[in-house]
Amino acid sequence: MNFTQRLHLSLKGATLCVLSAVIGSLGNPAFSAQLEPTYIRDVQPNFRVDQIPVIRRDTPLFSYSTEGMIDQIKMTGIYNERSFRFYSPKNEVISKASVTLRYTPSPALIPQQSQLNVYLNGQLQKSLPVTKEQLGSQVSATVDFNPKQIEETNRITLEFVGAYTNVCGSVSNPSLWLTVDSSSFLTLSTQMVRLANDLSLIPTPFVNTLSPSATTLPVVFASAPNNLMKQAAAVVASWAGVKAEWRGIDFPVYYNEQPSDQNFVAFVTNDSRPDFLKFLPKVNAPTVSVVDAPNTMFAKILVIAGRNEDDLLTAARYLAAQDKGIAGGLVTIEGFSALPDRKAYDAPAWIPTGEKVSFDKIAKYRGQLTSTGLHPAPIKLEVKLPPDLFMVTSSNVNLDLRYRYTKPTNREAAQMRFLLNDQLVESYELKPDTNSNSFASQFSMLNGLANLWNNTSIPSRLLSAENMMTFDFQYALSVSGGTTENCKSVALIPNQVEIDPNSTIDFSGFYHFARLPDLKLFTVSGFPFSKYADLSQTLVLIRDQAPANVVSTMLNTMGRIGAQIGYPATKVTVDSAVRNGNAKDKDILVFAETSQDLSGLEKLEPEVLLEKMRGNDKNQFSEKADNTGRTLVTEDTGIAAMAQYESPYSSGRSVVTLMGDGQDGSFILNKRLMNPGDLKVVGGSVAIFRPNAVPSSFEAGPSYYTGSLPWHQRVWYSLLDQPLLLVLFTLLCALLFAGGIYYLMHSIIRYRSRRH
């Protein structure tokens, strides 16, 4: 008898024993109440706990709205549907789900004929009839969902079916309504599941790529990492940031400590590994693997391992470059060569600026260029660009737009509105005798002539780093129900609109030129470091034995830049000092608590400001004494700073420093860095961060420039900051022109007089 047959008989015997025990205990009520499912558990690892708890969460329903955050929903005969979306990631199972609705039906509705239907992924879950007692009063009802119909991405749809008359009603009648209150909530009972140790699943479960929630991904070292280990961690952090995209990501750092019940990343060498990972075998080459975390039923560890720190860097680069082509629990890396350096301004998230770009290359998902409904939702396209595009004389962008639409019925008014960053650019009539149209347009990216004279609005002469193009199709709708004698039934047909994917936009012909310092370019798009998407011309300075909070700030910055440009920092350099020419022709990122942390740098401007702010803050804390005479501090503490200035080692290069005053200051800075929209208000050359306050930005230090302009553009740019000189120059040009005309005319007259 072979092994397979013996195993089959053993399992069969075990099953019969279990069934016998159950059948023999059916008469015992106590046993029936305690009966639980039986699991066949893995032999490895033996440190797993036995039970994963079920967690119940009640969340406001409106937070799942597909329309964004809203205060109230009013459903009518025309707007009779609303949708909400929730998610179920691969490492989590939703065992029970329900929605509790609190709604108020119109007192004019006819009971029983009016109802609120609840759907999950297109399947009706329950129909809630409106009764006579409910009219005009708030109603509370709970609808349980069928767990078998729950998928990774789930849509809850509320459909209002209302009637206010038995004869010839109109869907547009103002008496036809039902409101849903913001106190409605979604209840999910979730349980974490044990995923297989399979690298083909990544970035799951380490990075959230499904729901809008931010990711927290702890990073573990055996002790304070050296430069190469920090460099490897920076590569992995930027890779995770690329996967998280706009959602935000945070990297708390642990030294020889296991995060509690979380998926995390661990950097391990044969001679340096956390105590709780001593069971991992030594390796003979760079490896990337997924293993079960100790003392937890579901958490996983993404292990970056090697014989030494050089192997860790190789493994990190391999993960960043080949993550879509790996599978299994462990991959050994052999013969991997680093990718060639990226070219300037070729970040995948940025639109190419040297050629026409079709809309199908801008769209991020299928169906983005299509919208359907009585009033179709606006079609939106995000356009990210290098933030140093210089636009003064050539301030027009060419747009060749083609679109199709449902013909307006009954020759009702309809139009398509084109908006850029919520500002109306142009509107076009949707003609009833055709179903398509196209136009070529030029739109200016300048904020108005007045801004040309404002010294603080230099970014207005640059193309915005983040732009949103909106195409809003509006249809007029008039509905008549007729009369009792001549009743008309009306069937509302949804409209469909489409932007042709062959439409193009052209940003070519612009120069790369910017005046610095300008922290807004850094916080919005990681510039100037992101000029080269792999950060091949970036030097990160962070001291040896850096505390975990400072390393966390560095990783959060790398993750943020990766998310902004769509590419991991595979070529970034990390060092603890300026030495041996490592800062020449490099943009420098500095992470520290004080300038004494780093050698080769003079006292940093942010540190000077921090010292001043510390002194001021000591007098601003509200203090009082309790009954025992102890002093109570009633304000939050902590302060952080960010600054930019020209590198002393290369002309036109930048130094950006991020400094937090201890753990409290680092907490403030890290909280800002993980939120994609939280630093967009920062500008100038220095920014100060306090708890629960808007960052303060200042202009300090001399200006410098990056990029290049032709000489005539340089002259024009120089005159923009000197309005009086510009006026004088204009008058001089006018005088020269008038003098030339006068001389030409005088010469013509003299010539004619000589002939006569």
Automatic annotation (TrEMBL):
Entry keyword annotation includes Ribosomal protein: no
Transmembrane helix found in the keyword field: yes
Pfam families per UniProt: BcsB
GO CC terms: plasma membrane
Pathway assigned in UniProt: Glycan metabolism; bacterial cellulose biosynthesis
Subcellular location: Cell inner membrane
Signal peptide feature range: 1-32
Keyword set, alphabetical order: c-di-GMP, Cell inner membrane, Cell membrane, Cellulose biosynthesis, Membrane, Signal, Transmembrane, Transmembrane helix
Biological processes annotated in GO: cellulose biosynthetic process; UDP-alpha-D-glucose metabolic process
InterPro entries: Cell_synth_B (IPR003920), Cell_synthase_bac (IPR018513)
TM helices/strands, residue ranges: 724-745
Protein topology in the membrane: Single-pass membrane protein
Family according to the record: Belongs to the AcsB/BcsB family.
Protein purpose: Binds the cellulose synthase activator, bis-(3'-5') cyclic diguanylic acid (c-di-GMP).
Quaternary data: Tightly associated with the cellulose synthase catalytic subunit.
Protein name: Cyclic di-GMP-binding protein
Organism: Parasutterella muris
Taxonomy of the source species: Bacteria, Pseudomonadati, Pseudomonadota, Betaproteobacteria, Burkholderiales
